[in-house]
Design goal:
Blueprint: E1 5-16, E2 24-35, E3 39-44, H1 50-58, E4 65-70, E5 73-74, H2 80-83, E6 87-90, H3 104-112, H4 126-137, H5 156-168, E7 174-178, H6 186-202, E8 207-210, H7 214-219, E9 223-228, E10 231-237, H8 238-242, H9 246-256, H10 262-266
Parallel strand pairs: 3-8, 3-9, 6-7, 7-8
Antiparallel strand pairs: 1-2, 1-4, 4-5, 9-10
Helix pairs in contact: 3-5, 5-6
Length: about 270
């Protein structure tokens, strides 16, 4: 029985500021197939095209050429808001995924009702509130006892944990994590990453996670890809991935002429 393909990128190209002195080829004939249940970690140096890849999938900008098949549908020309029903996304900045002036339970209600009429009226039902409390308790942050607190009062780690929960409440076809622990202190980052793995495994979520941390890239998920100059230059999975060491990845960078920065080494 063949595996179900969740995402299929075919020869994606994207160049910014074409024809100017600031021209930048961000994606160069990039092809990638993501199967259902894959948890893929993505590494690469600055300017490798990692975040551009995420934005292309989400429809933040149109690609110059190529095709994007998501959940069996050709979404290449679909605007960002029409792709949202397929996707859950967590950004690097903890401030981006939540509405600070709304309560925790209101943020959760918006996420839970995604795809329905966007309204908080007639209010959050008792059944919904119990569901949100149960989900929040899994974070181990005590937020289930602060459901009417404004999200703007939360710490970065609390907000990022809440964003992750919101992104996965309605099981998305594809979960995109754009260095979602990079802005957190090590202890909080480890906690958020642990919850990420737990919720992805529990719901068999197809996940693509960009990270600068090579140890996390090796340890998490079933597949690892390395990007450079807008292309995938290394793709490894299964037992071969499990056997990788950080030095192996650094050597791959050196062999491909990539620039190794401090973040990659120190992490």
């Amino acid at each position: 029985m063949s595996e179900k393909v969740i995402l299929d990128l075919k020869d994606i190209c994207k160049t910014f500021n074409r024809g100017s002195v600031n021209e930048k080829v961000a994606l160069k004939n990039l092809s990638l197939t993501v199967n259902e249940g894959d948890f893929i970690t993505v590494i690469g140096g600055n300017g490798a095209g990692k975040s551009t890849l995420m934005n292309a999938i989400c429809g933040t900008f149109p690609v110059d050429s190529g095709r994007i098949i998501l959940g069996g549908a050709d979404v290449t020309r679909l605007p960002e808001y029409k792709r949202a029903k397929y996707l859950g996304r967590v950004f690097q900045d903890p401030m981006m995924g939540t509405s600070p002036n709304m309560e925790i339970e209101e943020n959760l209600a918006l996420a839970y009702r995604r795809g329905k009429v966007r309204s908080l009226m007639p209010g959050i039902t008792r059944k919904e509130r119990e569901f949100y409390r149960e989900q929040l308790s899994r974070l181990g942050l005590g937020l289930e006892n602060r459901m009417t607190a404004k999200v703007g009062l939360l710490s970065g780690g609390q907000r990022q944990s809440l964003t992750l929960l919101m992104a996965t409440l309605k099981k998305p076809e594809l979960l995109l994590l754009d260095e979602h622990t990079a802005a957190l202190d090590p202890k909080t980052a480890a906690k958020v990453l642990g919850f990420t793995e737990e919720i992805a495994a529990e719901n068999n979520l197809t996940t693509v996670m960009i990270t600068h941390n090579m140890m996390d890239a090796i340890r998490c998920g079933n597949r690892l890809i390395m990007m450079q100059e807008g292309r995938v230059i290394y793709d490894v999975c299964g037992e071969e991935k499990k056997a990788l060491k950080v030095e192996d990845l650094l050597q791959r960078f050196r062999e491909s002429g990539g620039e190794i920065n401090d973040r990659m080494v120190l992490s």
